[in-house]
Amino acid sequence: MKDGTGTFIAYFEQYLRGGDAMPIVQVELLEGRTIEQKRALVEKVTQAIVESVGAPAENVTVIIRDMPKENLAKAGKLEYDK
Q: Which residue in the list 7, 12, 15, 23 is annotated as catalytic?
């Protein structure tokens, strides 16, 4: 699935069967980040997980969800309108 939900479910099912599919980190961002920014983000998030909980880097899954500005509102105003 494009939004990563299928990936999450597949990894969670693997974890329930005793696999080492965790941890999974989901990051929601307003769209517009470059691929270079996303690469840096997943590298640093992965490293933070490795250092803080001791999970091997190969077990860390990061799901990035790009959200259009018209799908997020704060204080009654769409981000799109700011």
A: 23
